[in-house]
Q: What sequence folds into this?
């Protein structure tokens, strides 16, 4: 079999998991933010230096950071004449209802690069005004002189009839301009969301195109797949043309990995908690992974199907500092990989990792399995100035930093559970990422979650999730008709072109008919509503819609007529998955490698430190204790107990 490598390029560390005939191999190293491909090539060289046949599945934050840092392409927008301000006006909703001084959304486009084109389609796709070709040719010459990187083309009602967009796109490409058209990215109604998604795609595509093209060349004969925000992967060629689909690629892979690990261990209802060096991502899995088409990236809506993930700027590298009012803040600024936390030896900023070290919850001599030593004195020096300003001792400040970071992450968990109509007490918490296991117990206690699972490969679970992901393609078409007017047979007929397109593109990537899975979904709402709920297509889809509506909003009205807004297809090509190694647990008391002093709840405790590799399935012990591994650390506070299951996961419960 070809060796397959999952690569998760994060803000602080880059993680690798290699699946070959010899089993799984893991690797973790510091990221290289100035050029992420350097760390990627270094890690692949360590794991698969002499392999000719190699498949690489890559997820990264490059596209997301491009949007958040406003470092994307110079984009021009051509739109229906008279509608140049759609993106500026938006939905006229306020993100903070009672704040009279909300900052305006920072635009991605220069004001002088938005142009109206004389053309008009009706809502049914009929031509009202033909495209003015002279205007298009004049604009093409102007944009070439203005040296724009790419042109976004967004016309009214192109979801119903893309003919005008196709005409303009063809003429622009003849003028050697790069073009991104809305009917190619998101052929759905709602102009603001469709145009926002298209412009975001145009904004990140040139940079991702260069980045992936360079990476492909350096990987030589390896086949490169890119993780998507929907939990599946796509070819590098597709990602280079539709980079907006990769905005949440790393976090999405983590949810895929968490679900697979939890199901193998016997848990189907989980909240995934991915705490890395720069940020924390949480998502809810009620057997199935929760999806959404209402994501916001950098203040802009993205209507593509994505895993429902909440992200907060709290990670191991998040900087702790005092705000203008003298209050302690943690994040969203991060020390990143360079210079990193103070304890890494080069940074000077006080971070969450430094706080955990100062509390005795990290073994400074066995970080990353002993491959990296932490500088305790440097962390203490970084904390002293802030502690003095707050009139606290250094340990008291460190506990405060952890509490503030935990509060930020707890709020994100309430968003994906309580605010979605779920009781977090019904779920297990799957904690991963390098720092997830260090904070999981305290957050679970606040949410009254009874069980915490820290996977055996917690520190590289997102990279492992990339090897578990299937090749997935999403297609959609707007319908906007009442459900009563559409029979199941009529819906099946309307789905057929999307199904054929999905099967054709999967076949082109080497998947036979038996390796293909097609899911049909419909966006449904009550007539008169402006928001819809996506449900699987079946004869009882209206019943399922009413059930989900009641859970989300507290009521439903089965007597009220419904409307189908969009048809959706999820076409998946099934990939080879890693096999989980299982050993029958034998109950035994775990033996610590050392005993150290650590601080919990404003007092010091004699704390047992265990090496993960030394813990056999069935090993158990009570807190306070710390389990240290090659990629992650688990902290078990007083009042909790843990055991190691047959897969090597650490399962934690209250005593």
A:
């Amino acid at each position: 079999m070809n060796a397959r490598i999952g690569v998760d390029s994060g803000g602080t560390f880059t993680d690798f998991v290699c699946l070959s005939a010899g089993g799984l191999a893991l690797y973790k190293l510091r990221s290289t933010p100035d050029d992420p491909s350097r760390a990627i090539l270094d890690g692949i060289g360590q794991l698969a230096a002499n392999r000719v046949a190699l498949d690489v599945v890559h997820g990264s934050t490059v596209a997301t950071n491009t949007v958040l840092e406003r470092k994307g392409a110079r984009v021009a927008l051509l739109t229906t004449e008279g509608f140049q301000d759609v993106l500026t006006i938006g939905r006229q909703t306020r993100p903070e209802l009672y704040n009279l001084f909300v900052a305006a959304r920072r635009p991605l486009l220069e004001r002088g690069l938005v142009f109206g084109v004389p053309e008009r389609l009706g809502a049914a796709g009929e031509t009202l005004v033909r495209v003015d070709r002279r205007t298009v040719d004049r604009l093409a010459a102007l944009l070439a002189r203005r040296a724009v990187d790419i042109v976004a083309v967004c016309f009214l009602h192109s979801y119903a009839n893309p003919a005008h967009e196709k005409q303009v796109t063809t003429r622009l490409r003849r003028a050697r301009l790069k073009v991104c058209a809305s009917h190619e990215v998101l052929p759905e109604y709602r102009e603001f969301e469709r145009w926002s998604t298209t412009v975001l795609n145009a904004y990140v595509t040139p940079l991702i195109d260069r980045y992936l093209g360079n990476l492909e060349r350096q990987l030589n004969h390896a086949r490169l797949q890119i993780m998507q925000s929907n939990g599946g992967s796509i070819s590098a060629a597709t990602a280079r043309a539709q980079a907006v689909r990769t905005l949440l690629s790393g976090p999405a892979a983590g949810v895929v990995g968490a679900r697979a690990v939890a199901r193998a261990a016997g848990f189907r209802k989980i909240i995934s908690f991915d705490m890395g060096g720069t940020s924390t991502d949480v998502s809810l899995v009620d057997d199935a992974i929760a999806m959404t088409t209402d994501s916001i990236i950098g203040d802009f809506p993205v209507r593509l199907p994505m895993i429902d993930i909440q992200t907060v700027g709290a990670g191991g590298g998040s900087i702790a500092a005092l705000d203008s009012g003298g209050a302690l803040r943690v994040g969203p600024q991060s020390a990143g990989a360079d210079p990193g936390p103070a304890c890494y030896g080069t940074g000077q900023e006080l971070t969450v990792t430094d706080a955990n070290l100062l509390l005795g919850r990290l073994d400074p001599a066995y970080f990353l399995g002993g491959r990296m030593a932490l500088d305790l004195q440097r962390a203490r020096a970084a904390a002293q100035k802030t502690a003095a300003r707050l009139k606290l001792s250094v340990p008291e400040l460190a506990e405060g930093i952890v509490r503030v970071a935990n509060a930020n992450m707890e709020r994100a968990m309430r968003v994906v559970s309580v605010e979605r109509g779920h009781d977090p007490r019904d779920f297990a918490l799957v904690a991963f990422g390098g720092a997830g296991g260090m904070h999981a117990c305290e957050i679970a206690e606040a949410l009254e979650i009874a069980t915490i699972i820290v996977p055996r490969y917690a520190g590289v679970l997102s990279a492992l999730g990339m090897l578990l992901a299937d090749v997935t393609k999403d297609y959609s078409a707007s319908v906007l008709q009442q459900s009563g007017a559409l029979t199941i047979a009529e819906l099946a007929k309307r789905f057929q072109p999307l199904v054929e397109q999905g099967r054709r593109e999967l076949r082109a990537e080497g998947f036979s008919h038996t390796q293909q899975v097609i899911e049909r979904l419909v966006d449904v709402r009550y007539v008169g509503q402006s928001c819809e709920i996506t449900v699987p297509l079946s004869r009882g889809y209206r019943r399922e819609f009413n059930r989900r509506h009641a859970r989300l909003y507290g009521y439903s009205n089965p007597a009220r007529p419904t409307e189908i807004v969009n048809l959706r297809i999820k076409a998946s090509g099934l990939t080879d998955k890693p096999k989980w190694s299982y050993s029958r647990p034998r109950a035994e008391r775990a033996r610590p490698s050392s005993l150290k002093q650590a601080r919990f709840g404003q007092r010091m405790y004699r704390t047992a430190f265990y090496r993960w590799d030394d813990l056999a399935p069935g090993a158990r012990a009570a807190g306070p204790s710390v389990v240290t591994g090659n990629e992650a650390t688990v902290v078990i506070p007083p009042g909790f107990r843990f055991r190691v299951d047959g897969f090597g996961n650490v399962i934690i419960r209250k005593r």
In short: Residues 642 and 652 are 4 Å apart (CA to CA). The mean pLDDT is 91. The chain has 16 helices and 36 strands.
